[in-house]
Design brief:
- By secondary structure, this protein is mostly helical.
- 51% of the residues lie in helices and 4% in strands.
- The chain has 26 helices and six strands.
- Strand 4 and strand 5 form a beta hairpin.
- 40% of the residues are buried.
Length: 647
């Protein structure tokens, strides 16, 4: 029983009057429940606490919200007949019953079923035909889906599963849903908000797995039991275990809701394993999400949903590859998904949410999502160029020329990073045009922290490879000095970024990769420390790492996942005792009988091109120009300056 509302949790979940009593339980084995039929919308709001923002404003609207049970339309207009510039609001009449939970399988070109045979199938008005116990749907001339027998449990068992999931978080279910669409969905829009809300209200067509995933990811945004002594705390551990079990069962016969739930669960760092990522990518291939659906015979909203899911999966796979140090599962030669456009988000948000900002037609959430996708494509390029086994072997074979080889390969990636940063709209920046941190932090600006952290992690991933290459015997010492100076400046910029994060930033939604991205800053600092040529330089990094650890400790109270970065830095510090002591500057100069590297300007390090020209090595300047182009502090980058901050 839920003592707060004097109902059992099941009846409270279904928003119906509860007639269960202990007396009735002892006398009659069954319980009678009276459904609240015929309630006026306002009465339902008062009795069940339904938020008015959910659209319960008239009886006719309530009827429209039941449209998920309406049979599918008699015709499906081909996509090419819909002008790309025209806005088409989502109509739930277009959604087939059970669409999100229906298992589909993409028919590949090398299976035992000859695709050419499918061209002769007699198709009905839905472009489908029955083959054995499956329905084959022809989506386009170059793509065919096999719609297999629905494996989702029946209504009674599914309702029971929903009851179980809801009981784990009761009485906070509705609050968690609101928090999800306030904090997570705006920057990770892989659901259709109105459809999910309607399914949740009516308890129809809602996947228990997807509901559990939403709850798992949103629990941290609710101050559970703060104002009540009787309200129990949600069983987070049991909820996670149940969600993972449901996901494992669903991966055998994946559906759209399987991918949605899997993507949400993998945004929780403790659940985002490399093996789960691989299973999720494979499940998405089953649904054909890796293919271009632009000309497929399906509604505009379905195309938009498929593209958002595809790119969300792409991001998850690439950042998982970085986080776990494992090969990516998605390759360019098997990926034809087109870039996201404004129309792809037309049905992602409920009416009146995620309104446009900065006089643009696209809201903050879609902008953030698209820029994160663009940044991830740069990360993917860096991983392919520098961190594959083939690339590592190639660099190793280059001997003392590997640094120059790496710099030549790094030039395009660095130019792309510069262009990416310069293209950020004002709403996605952390600072104003004067370099000052935004004073009034809205929920939208607070979400930008994860985007900028990902940028620094991408830069660090590139520079880690460069710094490691400097260890090769015979490396040009002046070139090494320039590379280390650039790396030093980038480390300081990243640490300064973390130091300036405010509680509003830290309490916002951060993807699973964020905890490792914070750790990478410390790892990069440790790399520079252990490769420092002198004890003085090593001590500089020791001090900066101590300051960074303090920052992480202060931030930890607002972001628990910071604990991972703290532990990672502590582990690295403990291992540092095995690193041999560094010689002092004077000792190093005496032992090498060489002059110290040319002193860089005190006001600014200058660009790589300038440094190389000063050294009389104009032939090498083209190699370095790519790394010279971006500025190295956030404020400099926003002003478009190329000079580096003073050390």
């Amino acid at each position: 029983m839920n003592e707060m509302v004097n109902k059992c949790y099941s009846c409270d979940f279904h928003r119906q009057e509860c007639t269960f009593t202990l007396t009735a339980q002892s006398e009659v084995p069954s319980k009678k429940r009276k459904l609240d039929e015929g309630l006026e919308p306002t009465e339902g709001i008062k009795r069940y606490g339904i938020p008015t923002g959910w659209g319960y404003t008239s009886a006719s609207h309530v009827e429209r919200n039941r449209a998920l049970t309406i049979p599918r339309p008699s015709t499906i207009q081909p996509a090419q007949s819909i002008p790309e510039t025209e806005s088409h609001p989502l109509s739930v009449n277009m959604i087939r019953p059970g669409f999100f939970n229906q298992t589909t399988q993409h028919i590949g070109m090398t299976t035992e079923l000859e695709p050419t045979l499918l061209e002769y199938l007699p198709l009905d008005q839905y472009d489908e035909c029955t083959v054995s116990n499956s329905r084959v749907r022809r989506c386009a001339d170059d793509g065919t889906f096999m719609r297999v027998v629905d494996t989702v449990p029946g209504g009674d068992s599914q309702a029971l599963s929903l009851d179980v999931i809801e009981s784990m978080v009761a009485p906070y279910g509705s609050t968690l849903i609101e928090k999800f669409f306030d904090h997570v969905h705006p920057s990770f829009p892989i659901l259709i908000e109105e459809v999910f809300r309607q399914s949740y209200r009516e308890r129809r067509g809602l996947s228990p797995l997807l509901l559990a995933a939403v709850y798992v990811l949103t629990l941290k945004f609710v101050d559970v039991g703060a104002n009540s002594q009787t309200a129990r705390k949600p069983d987070a551990a049991r909820l996670e275990a149940s969600a993972l079990k449901l996901l494992m069962d669903s991966l055998q016969f994946p559906s759209v809701s399987t991918i949605q739930a899997g993507l949400l669960l993998t945004q929780k760092s403790t659940l985002a394993t490399a093996s789960l990522n691989g299973q999720l990518v494979t499940a998405a291939f089953e649904l054909g999400l890796h293919q271009d659906c632009t000309k497929w015979r399906m509604e505009t909203w379905e195309k938009g949903l498929r593209k958002r899911l595809a790119w969300a999966l792409y991001m998850q796979d690439k950042w998982s590859s970085l986080v776990h140090g494992r090969p990516s599962h998605i390759f360019a030669f098997n990926w034809t998904v087109k870039d996201l456009v404004e129309q792809d988000f037309s049905d992602a948000f409920a009416s009146g949410t995620d309104s446009s900002h900065d006089e643009t037609a696209v809201g903050h959430g879609p902008l953030l999502f698209c820029h994160m996708v663009a940044l991830t494509t740069i990360l993917s390029d860096i991983l392919d160029r520098f961190y594959t086994l083939h690339a590592i072997e190639e660099f190793s074979a280059a001997g003392n020329q590997r640094t120059r080889m790496i710099l030549e390969k790094a030039k395009p990636a660095q130019i792309r990073l510069k262009d990416w940063f310069s293209s950020l709209p004002p709403s996605l920046k952390m600072e104003t045009s004067t370099g000052e941190l935004v004073e009034t932090i809205t929920d939208e600006h607070a979400r930008n922290g994860a985007l900028h952290l990902a940028y620094f992690a991408t830069e660090i991933t590139l520079h880690r490879c460069i710094v490691r290459s400097l260890l090769a015997e015979g490396t040009d010492q002046y070139l090494a000095h320039i590379c280390r100076s650039a790396a030093k400046t980038r480390l300081i910029s990243a640490m300064d970024f973390v130091n300036r994060l405010r509680p509003a930033h830290l309490r916002s939604f951060w993807p699973a990769s964020a905890r490792t991205n914070f750790s990478l800053i410390g790892s990069f600092g440790m790399l520079l420390r252990i490769t420092a040529p002198t004890s003085e330089e090593a001590d500089f990094y020791r001090v900066r790492l101590c300051e960074y650890r303090w920052t992480l400790g202060v931030s930890h109270k607002n972001a628990e996942f910071m604990g991972f970065a703290l532990q990672s830095l502590d582990n690295a510090t403990a291992l540092h005792k095995h690193v041999p002591a560094k010689p002092g500057i004077e000792e190093l100069m005496a032992s090498t009988n060489k002059n110290a590297p040319p002193r860089m300007p005190t006001t600014a390090l200058g660009s790589y091109d300038e440094a190389m020209m000063d050294a009389g090595t104009a032939a090498s300047s083209s190699v370095m120009s790519g790394l010279a182009s971006p500025a190295t502090s956030v404020s400099d980058m926003e002003d478009g300056e190329a000079s580096m901050a003073p050390l």
